[in-house]
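Lecture 7 notes: from sequence to structure.
We start with the chain below.
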Amino acid sequence: MTSLPREFRKTPLILLSCIAVLAIGIGGATAAFSALYTIVLRPLSYPNPQQLVAVHSQFPRLQMDHSGVSPLDYLDLPNIKTSSATPELSFTSTSAAQANCTPRK
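Predicted structure tokens for the same chain:
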């Protein structure tokens, strides 16, 4: 351990390369965490986040309990007319932040 500084004085290129590798590694990890925080971890800036709603469809015959709703289907929900061929839709709010859209039989 005592001969380590002497070795670095003899070969300064190794010391500089070790410092460069550490700096690039620390800088890369910091940049990756910063990007991850900005994209995924930071809370969304909505005025009332407690009023956000999730809409899901349920298809019991297909064994799909929570299927997503496409944007076009979501926009078409108020225009659906119920008939004998089209089941009636029910909207059940399970909590303030979650809602389910399920077809009635």
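Points to note: The chain has a mean pLDDT of 76. The first strand starts at residue 56 and ends at 59.
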